[in-house]
Amino acid sequence: MSRLKELRVYVDKKLNKIEDEDKRISAAAHLYGVSLAAQILAKKRGLDSELAAMAGMLHDMHAYKTGSYDDHAHLGAELARKILGKLELTTQEETDIICSAIYHHDDKAAIDGPMDELLKDADVIDHCFKDASKPVKEKEQKRYDALCKELGL
């Protein structure tokens, strides 16, 4: 089994514990959507698509586990480090790359490392393209515009 598939099995088990069906479906759709967008962007940008997809799968797990988005990026990086350590799927360097991306993903205005930026952009893609009837959030507008230009949309 691939590392990504093994991680998805773990994430699915955790998401299946969410009792509210709408929240469970929304959580799964978002994590899988960000993971897919991250893989595509990684291919385009010459980054590791498997690590990008893994970061996407884990980036909001803390929020879904606790039901709170308070400091979810920083706390989510800690949770991701524990999960990756438990599953023994990544090297220390790979874990650091994934956790840095998760740690920084909520600060859409800052510019961080390449994988950090990729996860921010994948998150924006999922937020902005999942439901075109919703307006783009102000904090995501600049990234959304840059992504549309980068992707030729």
What does this structure look like?
- The chain has 153 residues and is an all-alpha fold.
- It has a single domain, classed as Hypothetical protein af1432, CATH 1.10.3210.10.
- Helices cover 73% and strands 0% of the residues.
- It has 8 helices and no strands.
- The longest helix has 25 residues, at 21-45.
- The chain starts with a helix and ends with a helix.
- 38% of the residues are buried.
- The mean pLDDT is 95.
CATH structural architecture: Orthogonal Bundle
What is the H/E order?
HHHHHHHH
Tell me the strand percentage band: under 5%
Largest β sheet strand count, sense and barrel closure: none
The CATH fourth-level homologous superfamily: Hypothetical protein af1432
The CATH topology: Hypothetical protein af1432
In total, the number of strands is 0
Compact summary:
This protein is mostly helical and 153 residues long. It has 8 helices and no strands. The termini are far apart.
Note the topology.
Elements: H1 3-15, H2 21-45, H3 49-58, H4 61-66, H5 72-87, H6 92-104, H7 114-129, H8 138-150
